[in-house]
Write a structure and sequence with these properties.
The structure holds two protein chains of two kinds. Chain A is α/β, with parallel strands linked by helices. Chain A contains twelve helices and seven strands. Classes of the chains: A alpha/beta, B mainly alpha. Chains A and B meet through helix 6 and helix 8 of A and helix 4 of B.
């Protein structure tokens, strides 16, 4: 059975790794996939806040990450999504360097690295540090998060980033800037956009998963705006389908594993 | 020894005390106090020795930062100016004198992204496209 491990990468905090993971999870669920969620961010537990069903993995030592591969090898979960913490940097990266990618590929286990880039040069640099080590062993899905600015000069115009884009063919998804008020409210209430707009309990002021919606979010126009916002992201994720479901090769880019 | 200007009675033994503390394991302050009393007849508290060495270390740090080791009455208690810890970048025309350098910072190609001009960017993209076409 095929298994794909999706993991967030990059040591820079606040670059939108967990936000990207959230969109990806709700997108995959909308497609009927049920990714196994693993929260390896033992400092913030952001993923668990939004998805309480996520497994919280205690990171005591480097080998704690073995659980990722062990879970994938059982074959019970076609998709495993792991949210790694910011600042894990070298330790986790070194764990990845021990992973026998070739062997796992033979066992139908593949890896997709989820990067999140903002206008901060550090976010680009820390992600490219990972790329420099992982090279073509994994596929890449890069979220361009415009929360801090519309332009990403360190991703668009630098030698290192251009080489990465040309040689490793990442799939790109742009996350437009969301109004701060909505963003803060969603964060405060631990809500995904999907939970809000799919709610059939608006009369009771509850999200699709029974969480309270507060005062601002149930407004009709706001929900319409958020629905459009999410649709724009989902449309882009459609082009990355071949990364999540390797059996179903689609048009688009991505690394063809030999 | 003390008087005006004040000078510590430990000053003549500075080198000796420093040597004792430099040993590994260092001679304890308590033992230094005993030794000073036995060998030189000087009565001093443990805290007195500690404060004496701490002051000398401060003077030495200032001396390393390019200032002359000053006599006690000339010692300024102000914190060192921020410029003393500013890193020196290669190519800076207004470099501090070598004695003022606390550490050097070297630009690293690994950790600094190289921004390209639009022309350089187009050229690189073209070159990478060609390389890719050549690959089987």
């Amino acid at each position: 059975m095929n298994s794909t491990i999706l993991f967030t990468a990059g040591a820079k905090g606040g670059s939108g790794k967990s936000t990207a993971a959230r969109f990806l999870i709700t997108y995959l669920r909308e497609l009927g996939a049920e990714p196994l969620l693993m929260d390896l961010d033992d400092e913030n537990r952001t993923l668990s806040r939004f998805f309480p069903e996520a497994l919280s993995v205690e990171i005591k030592k480097k080998s704690s990450h073995d659980v990722l591969v062990q879970t994938a090898l059982t074959g019970n979960h076609p998709l495993v999504l792991a949210d790694l913490k910011a600042g894990t940097g070298r330790d986790v990266l070194e764990w990845f360097l021990d992973v026998p990618f070739e062997e796992l590929r033979a066992s139908q286990v593949t890896f997709v690295c989820l990067g999140s880039i903002t206008s901060s040069p550090d976010s680009v640099q820390s992600f490219l540090n990972w790329v420099g080590e992982l090279r073509d062993q994994v596929s890449y899905l890069v979220f361009k998060n415009l929360k801090d600015g519309e332009t990403l000069p360190d991703y668009e115009d630098t030698h290192e980033a251009i080489r990465f884009r040309k040689q490793l063919n990442p799939v790109h998804v742009t996350i437009p800037r969301l109004d701060e008020e909505y963003q803060t409210e969603l964060e405060r209430l631990n809500l995904t956009i999907s939970e809000l707009i799919d709610s059939d309990q608006l009369q009771e002021n509850l999200s699709a998963r029974g969480k309270p919606l507060g005062d601002i979010l149930p407004q009709l126009l706001l929900r319409a705006r958020l629905r459009n916002f999410q649709r724009r992201i989902y449309q882009q994720l459609d082009d990355a389908g071949h990364l999540f479901f390797p059996a179903q090769k689609q048009k688009g880019s991505g690394i063809a594993h030999g | 020894m003390s008087g005006w200007p004040f000078r510590s009675k430990l000053a003549p033994f500075e080198r000796e005390i420093a040597e004792l503390r430099r040993q590994r394991p260092p001679v304890s302050y308590r033992q230094i106090v005993q030794r000073l009393k036995e060998q030189h007849g000087i009565e001093v508290t443990i805290n007195g020795v500690f404060a004496f060495l701490r002051t000398r270390r401060k003077w030495d740090r200032r001396a390393a930062a390019g200032r002359k080791r000053t006599a006690p009455q000339e010692v300024s208690h102000r914190r060192p100016a921020p410029s003393a810890v500013v890193t020196n970048r290669p190519g800076d025309s207004n470099q501090a004198t070598p004695s003022r350098k606390l550490f050097n910072y070297t630009y690293s190609n690994t950790y600094n992204l190289t921004r390209l001009t639009p022309e350089e960017k187009v050229a690189l993209e073209k070159r990478l496209d060609e390389e890719r076409k050549r690959q089987p």
